[in-house]
Amino acid sequence: MSQTTIFCDIQAVTTETETKNKDTFLIADLITGQTLANSLQISQPLDKNSILLLISQGIGPEDLGNATSELTVLAIKDSLLRIPTSIPPYDRLVAAVEEANNIIWSERQTNSKMKDVFSTVTAVLIEGDQAFIAEVGNSRAYLIRADKIKQLTTDQVISQISAENFITPAQKRSYQNITLQAIGKAEAVKVAISMFQLRHSDILLLSTNSLSKIIAPEEVLALTPTLSPSKICQYFSSLVLKQNLTENITSIVSQFTGEALSNKKPGSTITSSVQILSRFDPEEKVEKSHKRTLMLGDISLSNKYYRTVEPSSLVNIIPIGSISPFPESSVIKAECETMLEHLNYCHTLLSIKPEQLRYASKWLQQQGYQYSNLSKRLVNINSGIEYIQKIRQLMHEMMTDLESTDDSSN
Hints:
Blueprint: E1 5-14, E2 23-29, E3 34-35, E4 39-45, E5 50-59, H1 62-82, H2 89-110, E6 118-127, E7 130-136, E8 140-145, E9 148-151, H3 158-161, H4 163-166, H5 169-175, E10 192-197, E11 202-207, H6 217-223, H7 229-242, E12 250-257, H8 270-273, E13 275-278, H9 291-296, H10 299-306, H11 329-351, H12 353-366, H13 374-403
Antiparallel strand pairs: 1-4, 1-12, 2-3, 2-5, 5-6, 6-7, 7-10, 8-9, 8-11, 10-13, 11-12
Helix pairs in contact: 1-2, 11-13, 12-13
C-alpha cells in the first residue's frame, strides 16, 4: 500500500425496535459531495481524504424527532460543502453546526408543531490524518487505540456536567437525563470541539447515548482486536434484541489504516494526544460566535443589501456587468465553485451510462432477454447531459460576473 494512502473501513447501523426511530446518521465524502453508503471500504490519497461522519438523535415527539435529526445532519453537510476549504476545519465545523442550530431554532419559532423538538449531534470531520470532533448534546464519540478506549465527548446533561454543583443527589437522579444543550433548543449554541491525529489502526465509534445502556466502553474495547467494524455493529444489534430494548441505538464504527498513518510517534497516551479546542460550560452564557453569518451569510444580510428602494430615489446609476463589489460576493462565488464540482462529477458519471446500458443490454440479449427501454433511456440520458452542460455554462457565467471588474454591462 502506498505511503500516502489511507484506508477507511466504515460501518453504520440503526437498530429496529418498536419505538419510532428518531436517529439519523450520515457518511459523506466532502471532496465529491457524495453521501456514502452505510457500509463501505475506501482507499484514497491522504491529501484527498475528507470524510464527514454525523450522528444525530431527535428529542421530542416521535413523529417529528426523526425529521429534526435528518434536518440537522443535512444542514451540517450542506454547510461544509458551501464553506471554502481554505478556512480552518475548526471554524468550518463551528459555522456548520451553528447553521443547523439556526435552522431548527427558526423552525421552532415559526412552526407551532416544532416548538418542543430539537436534536443532539456529534460530527467528525476527517481531513488527511486529522480528526475534528464537534458535539452538541449527548451523542457520543469514542477513540479506540491499541488497548485503550477514551470518550472524546462529554455528555451535556445535568448528571455529567453540573449536577454536583447545585442539586442534591436525589435531584440528580431525577434530572440525570435532562439535556443542557441541544440543536435548536436556544438561539445560540456553544459547539464543543476537540481534535487528534489519526494513527494506524485507530477506531472511531460514534453512537447515540442509548448504546451505553447495553454495553460498557471496556466491553466495546474487548471486541475490537477480533471484530471488523461490520461485525461490531452486528454485535450491537444482537444485544438490542437480547435485552428487548425499546430505544433505538445508532452507531458508526470506523477503522483507519495505511502506511500514511504508521509514522506517528508512539508512547503518548490517548488523553495527551487529544486537543480540546473549545468546551461547553453550562455556567457560562452562550454567545453567538458569528462564524455562521461570516461564512454562510444570514437573512439579515439579505435584508441589509436587498431592501426595497424606489428607483426614483437613485441617481447616477452606472450599469456594470460585475457583482464583485457586493460585500457577500465571496459567499456566492464559493457556492458556485462547489456546484461546479458537483456538476462536473455528475456529468462524468452520466456520460458513461450509455455505454454501460448498451453493455448490459447486450448481455441480456445473450441470456435471451430484451431490454425494451434502452432507446428511451439513451435519449433521456443525452437530454440530462445537455441540461448539466447548460447549468455548468450558467455557473461559469456567474463566476465571470463575480470575478470581473469591468464596468461595462454584458
